[in-house]
């Protein structure tokens, strides 16, 4: 009984493996952030798990991982993160789609994937920043840039977008590279279970 | 080990209200000021939330939750006060920097709205055990598997962070440098997170099997060990909240 | 009465080069306690996973032949349906905790809720198996805070609460300390008292000799021996096949002590009896 069906990219029927992966990926997001704080890195590194979930089990699982990640944060640590759930969902979807397009085959491609994820994250976060905080991100360096650009009469959306991008670009590229390294290190017998189910 | 939660056990009126009613309340309270963005309206809703937090005897617990937004709110007042597009009327001047009425009012509007969101959610989070909140949603049609994921996250985060500190200590004991230049600290990241992530990803395999053999994918309608306690009058209360939201919408459309 | 019938079962995992199971056929009677032994890669775990339907429903790969539990073909039933007939407990106790429940008591309800049992019935069953597995004292604890042995007993109780007729245990003590091992074997003896059909994979031959009425010896995916416990352990070619025997059997073999069936004793009590019979009471 050979199972040769090619997995549909957008298949909405989750396997138990995929479901169990979601809480684990949210835990990974959490410890990523924790280690980044402990090591005092100038990055968040809080979406490694969401990107891994997308790579391993596809865009839907990536999206759910991102969405629930922020919902749980919202319910337990900081309610604001609810609003940024949309950003996390977009990151998970992008990682899932790009992984299926072959962007986890080499480090070079993974860096490109990181660039795209940073761009998408910026585009999605900026309107939320504007609605919620009048355009700021809460990151000192990014907000300094925002202040300078606004004083020079740049439009809010552009100043806010650059504020977000200044923060996202290094963070999301680093995050994607880390997720890629971990993915490469996983035993094949495990990754195949995600792919075939 | 404890589960991830900010729930504070108290004997109060707010604690007795069932999770679903509170969820509806939070939804209405959070979304209304976005529909009707006037300062007076958001301020009244914020005061109502503060009153409920008092009734729930959890006001002190709110402070750490909202303290982190004070800095950002301060910078919102500074930046918008100086650079808001509609700035016209000068309010005051500080070290040659001009602050305007329009910008300050705009900053006040978004700040109060943000604080309102935080207070409304805090009310829910501080007075409702997360497991009861999730279960009340599953009872009302949220997929049980989504419920499983959320329950599981609440357990996995404290577990993984305690494992994280064990690994941190172990690696330090083996001489790993976790202090020093940025490059040294960056290099420490992968050896720290790698083993933890690998083992938890590999464990997903056996955990899935364990769930499967306990009927996780059963087509049967799921049942609940615990019964839900809903005090009388809650149905009316829920309808009242939704009518309020409808009124806000109507107000906005008419004006 | 036949409980399990396996006909020409073969299975190859995706990515694997060799078959994990190769043309296995055997029958298990209701109430049998089968001890399964064999070296690494013998196919023991694969057999366990096949009995509960994880193969072919969870693991894709090449599946041939059939397994019938009573008259239910595992190929045509879902894992969830099968979980009410065949239960599985495996090595790592930690990974068998659902992760969704905050207390031992609630953890026991997990499988019952999934299967849609009524509340009263759930409570009755939970109380029964909490007692049977000596978990009453820890019923309010977080499942992850239990000792390894307690966690494994919780896994066993959670499966028992589903009331399967067949209980499959895949090396349930291999990751436990001696005390945990002892606790789990005590729990296994309770299974026998409940009159279940049990399939137990274990390297602890002395324990198997105590409990199992039959031994299935697998080697490289094939059946090397399947017979009554004493008959298998009395074989002269055990060493060539890479297998040992219980300590009392080894002693009897050294002494050349065989019983009337021309078999070596497998348990302490039997060996003692035969020694007394041969050398007189003083030796005991």
TrEMBL record, chain A:
InterPro entries xrefs: ECF_trnsprt_substrate-spec (IPR024529)
Stretches that traverse the bilayer: 12-31, 43-62, 82-103, 110-133
Alphabetized GO MF terms: transmembrane transporter activity
Coiled coil location: none
This protein's record includes keyword Magnesium: no
Keywords assigned by UniProt, alphabetized: Membrane, Transmembrane, Transmembrane helix
Pfam families given in the database record: ECF_trnsprt (PF12822)
Entry protein name: Energy-coupling factor transport system substrate-specific component
TrEMBL record, chain B:
The keyword Cell membrane is annotated on this UniProt entry: yes
Subcellular location(s) of the protein: Membrane
Residue spans crossing the bilayer: 23-55, 62-84, 104-126, 146-168, 188-204, 237-254
Cellular component annotations (GO), alphabetically ordered: plasma membrane
Main location: membrane
Membrane topology type: Multi-pass membrane protein
Signal peptide limits: none
CDD domains from the UniProt entry: EcfT (cd16914)
Record's keyword terms, sorted: Cell membrane, Membrane, Transmembrane, Transmembrane helix
Protein name per Swiss-Prot or TrEMBL: Energy-coupling factor transport system permease protein
Automatic annotation (TrEMBL), chain C:
Membrane topology category: Peripheral membrane protein
Localization (cell): Cell membrane
Gene Ontology molecular function: any one: ATPase-coupled transmembrane transporter activity
Predominant localisation class: membrane
Family recorded in the similarity comment: Belongs to the ABC transporter superfamily.
Lineage: Bacteria, Bacillati, Bacillota, Clostridia, Halanaerobiales
Protein name per its UniProtKB record: Energy-coupling factor transport system ATP-binding protein
Keywords assigned: ATP-binding, Cell membrane, Membrane, Nucleotide-binding, Translocase, Transport
ABC transporter domain boundaries: 4-245
SUPFAM superfamilies (UniProt xref): P-loop containing nucleoside triphosphate hydrolases (SSF52540)
Family matches, as InterPro entries: AAA+_ATPase (IPR003593), ABC_transporter-like_ATP-bd (IPR003439), ABC_transporter-like_CS (IPR017871), ABC_transpr_CbiO/EcfA_su (IPR015856), ECF_ABC_transporter_ATP-bd (IPR050095), P-loop_NTPase (IPR027417)
Superkingdom of source: Bacteria
Assigned GO CC terms: ATP-binding cassette (ABC) transporter complex
Pfam families: ABC_tran
Organism encoding this protein: Halanaerobium saccharolyticum
